[in-house]
Amino acid sequence: MPREFDCVVAGAGLVGAPLALGLARLGLKIALVEQRVARPAPSEPSAAGSDARGLALARSSARVLTDVGLWPVLAPHATPITTVKVSQRGHFGTLRLSHTDLGVEALGYVWRADHLQAALDAAVLSSTVTRYWGARVTGCDVTETAATVHLATTDSSRALSAALVVAADGVESAVRRVAGIAVTRHAYAETAIVANVDVERPAPNTAFERFTTSGPLALLPLGGRRYVAVRTADTATAQALLATTESIYLAELQQRFGDSLGAFSKLGPRQAHPLVLQRATKLHAPRVLLVGNAANTVHPNAAQGLNLGLRDCAVLLTSIADARMRGVDLGATELLQTYAKARAADHRATACFTDTIARVFALPSSVAGATRALGLIVVDRLPLLKRGLLQRLAGSGGAY
Ligand SMILES: Cc1cc2nc3c(=O)[nH]c(=O)nc-3n(C[C@H](O)[C@H](O)[C@H](O)COP(=O)(O)OP(=O)(O)OC[C@H]3O[C@@H](n4cnc5c(N)ncnc54)[C@H](O)[C@@H]3O)c2cc1C
């Protein structure tokens, strides 16, 4: 049976959509399957159901988005980050990371997740990608010559055949499951609560990571006085925080952060995200590859997850362009193995980096607190260490 598509991408999320666009730009016939329907960007940050998370993306990720033609639509919504301040409540010692340490104009950019997704949806709609929106991947069969992906909508089902299936369908990936790829999973027993706030005295283009005895608090600039506050707490505390009134929640945030930015106000809706470290035990099965959260879901403490997924995208696009030039079948084991090999070290290092931060900053004793404070001071004073950390955060230490 002739193959309908070169590649089926399952999941049009923040990794699947740019990947599908990049593959279509290589001149390939691409199907993109997504269970939700495309939605326009909400006009109001607090619109019900909107994903108001601020996503901090490294320079390397901005480059991936540029390469797939998205920068012109995304640039107007980007808030550049030029400084990152890391501190610990109740201890001296601040680590200050600046764009001047790397000699670049910005360390990264912040986008609201819903703006980013809406821009990606719009770009997909005006591309050559064949869309199956409102369709769920339910199965996948593989023969020596093709993979067949089964989809179900509310009232019908159908099958798509392709040389390669890419699983970009997130942490609970159906493609990964039907391909028989297992995962290792560690639940942190922590929940991140995301909510936008106004601050009285904004520090332009500055992001803050403040570690406290009951979990980290990150503030990412959204432009003007608006910041996205990501408050991580153990599950029981998080439940209580989600149930409190707006004024109590704001007061609690303020107490954790301190008053260097003045008073917090105008709290947006609170969204809860339980945190896990989940890693696929392998990145490929016959004619199937994993990318993004389907491959690795990491703690958001260092804003690494989507950056890692976009580096998957970049490496896969390069491998496929190369395979195509050499006339290699896109589902060939050689290509699958090349991708998996190229991504292994970055996946391992990023999982280890975020997990180490999560564990080290969770240690409760005052000795641990003083040691962490010393660590921040040491990294702040040692240019080589600082540069290494900056390169990891800026994504330039990875394969891309
Ligand atoms: C609180 C929080 C803050 C974060 N902040 C940052 C940050 O600042 N920087 C950063 O780099 N990362 C951050 N991340 C991580 C980032 O959100 C993820 O890495 C990113 O969303 C992964 O994208 P993805 O496309 O792989 O998966 P997803 O975004 O989960 O997309 C998967 C897509 O697949 C679709 N899908 C699922 N199942 C099916 C199916 N069976 N059939 C069809 N479609 C399906 C879903 O509808 C969805 O659209 C954060 C995460 C959290 C929780």
Would you mind describing this structure in some detail?
Strands 5, 6, 12, 13, 14, 15, 16, 17 and 20 form a nine-stranded mixed sheet that branches. Strands 1, 2, 8, 9, 10, 11, 18 and 19 form an eight-stranded mixed sheet that branches. The radius of gyration is 21 Å and the shape is globular. It has a single domain (5-185, 275-393), classed as FAD/NAD(P)-binding domain. The chain has helices at 16-25, 59-67, 71-74, 99-102, 113-125, 174-178, 235-243, 246-257, 305-325, 333-360, 366-381, 383-393; strands spanning 5-10, 30-34, 54-58, 79-81, 83-88, 94-98, 108-112, 130-133, 136-142, 147-152, 157-167, 183-199, 206-212, 215-223, 226-234, 264-265, 271-280, 284-285, 288-290, 296-297. The protein is an alpha+beta fold. The model has no long low-confidence stretch (mean pLDDT 87).
Largest sheet properties: 9 strands, mixed
Task: Determine the number of helices (DSSP H or I, runs of at least 4 residues).
Answer: 12
Low-pLDDT parts are none
The CATH superfamily bears the name FAD/NAD(P)-binding domain
Q: What is the number of independent domains?
A: 1
The helix content, as a percent range, equals 25-40%
Bound molecules: flavin-adenine dinucleotide
Shape: globular
The CATH topology label is FAD/NAD(P)-binding domain
Share of β-strand residues:
25-35%
Distance between the termini: 37 Å
Q: Can you describe this structure in just a few lines?
A:
This protein is of the alpha+beta class.
